[in-house]
Amino acid sequence: xxxxxxxxxxxxxxxxxxxxxxxMKKHSQITPLLLHTGQHYDDMMSDVFFEELRIPxxxxxxxxxxxxxxxxxxxxxxxxxxxxxxERPNLVVVVGDVNSTMACSLVxxxxxxxxxxxxAGLRSFDRTMPEEINRLVTDSLSxxxxxxxxxxxENLRREGIPEEKIFFVxxxxxxxLMKNIDRIKSRGAxxxxxxxxQGFALLTLHRPSNVDVKETLQGILEALAELQTKIKxxxxxHPRTTKQLKKFKLWEMAEGMKNLILIDPLGYLDCLxxxxxxxxxxxxxxxxQEETTVLGVPCLxxxxxxxxxxxxxxxxxxxxxxxxxxIIQEGGKILTxxxxxxxxxxxxxxxxAARIVDxxxxxxxxxx
Length: 368
Ligand code: UD1
Fold this sequence. Notes:
Elements: E1 2-8, H1 11-26, E2 30-36, H2 47-52, E3 60-61, H3 69-87, E4 91-95, H4 99-110, E5 115-118, H5 130-141, E6 144-147, H6 150-158, E7 166-168, H7 172-185, H8 189-192, E8 200-204, H9 208-211, H10 214-227, E9 232-236, H11 239-247, H12 251-255, E10 260-263, H13 268-277, E11 280-283, H14 286-295, E12 299-301, H15 310-313, E13 317-319, H16 324-337, H17 352-361
Parallel strand pairs: 1-2, 1-4, 2-3, 4-5, 5-6, 6-7, 8-9, 8-11, 9-10, 11-12, 12-13
Helix pairs in contact: 1-7, 1-17, 3-4, 4-5, 7-13, 10-16
The chain binds uridine-diphosphate-N-acetylglucosamine.
C-alpha cells in the first residue's frame, strides 16, 4: 500500500489537487490523505472550491492562517512535522508555489519522505517574488518533478536536476477546466451581474509587486479609469488587494469609476464563466494565464515577467507590465483588432493527473 499525503494551502492549489485526488482514489493500492494547511481560510478563498470541485473534506487541517512569511512558513512546518511523524506516509505530494508548498516539502525531505512536486520547473527569474523562492526551494528538494511545458524541463536541467527525476506530464489545472467546462458554460454568471458575453473585460490583481506599492497600484487604477470608458471591467477583489486599496486611500478612486464593477472574490465556476465569456482578461494570476490560453481568450498579464512563457509563445497571453500607457494601449488594441490568437500547449489535454498517478504507482517506495 502507498500512503500519500496531498498538501493544499491556498486558493490556486485547490483546482490542482482535485484531479489528483480523484485519480488516486481509483487506485486500490493508494491511500490518499488530503491535508489543508489553512493558509487560506475564508469561505470564498477556500470552502467554495471544495464544494464546487467536489474535493473531499480534508483529512487533516493545520489551521495556520495569515502571518508574515517567516511566521506562516514556520507554523506550517511545525504542525506538518507532527502530522508526518504520526501518519508516516510513503510520499508527500505538493502543488504550485505557495508558502505551504515549500514548507511541507522541507519538512518531508528532512524526515526522509520522498516529495513529488506538481507544476515543477516554472521560473520567472525574479527573486523578488515570494513564489520564485518557493519554486526554487521545492524543486531542489523534490524526488519527482512533474512539469507542464518544455521550458520547465529546460530550467530544471540547467539547475542540475537529473533527467530521471523530471516527468513532462501536462497541466493538472487544465484537467479541472476540461472536466468542468459544461458546468462553467451553463452557469448564468453573467446574468447575475447584468453582463453580456464579450461586453466586458475581467480583471484580477493580488501580487505584492502590484498591490503593495502605492504608486504601482495607482498607475494601474489610472489605466483602468481610461479603459473603462470603452468597456465594462469586472473586478473580483482579493482580500489582500481590498486591504491595500483602503490603506493607500485608493478605494474611493476605484469605487468612483462607473464601469469598473467591484465584486467579492469569485468561486471557481463563476470566475471561469466570466473569463470564458469576456472580451479579454487582465491579470497578475498564474492560473488565469493558462486558463485563458486554453479558452482562447486574450490575456494581458500585468507583470514584468511570467514563469509561464508557453502561454506567450503558443497561447493568447501578452506580458504588458505595469506601465499605465502600455496597459491602455494593449487593451485598446484588443478592442479594435480582437487580440491574440493561440493554440493549446502540448499535453494540456485533461489527462495530466492520470499520467502522474501512473508514474507514482509504478515506483517502489521504501518503508518509513
Ligand atoms: C498567496 C500565495 C500566492 C497566490 C495567492 C492566491 C504565497 C507566498 N502566496 O498569496 O502565490 O497567488 O495566495 O490567492 O504563498 N487573507 C484573507 N483571507 C484568506 C487569505 C488571506 O483575508 O483566506 C488576507 C490576509 O490579510 C492575508 C493576505 O490576504 O494577510 C495575504 O494572504 P497570504 O496567504 O499571505 O498571501 P496571498 O496574497 O493570498
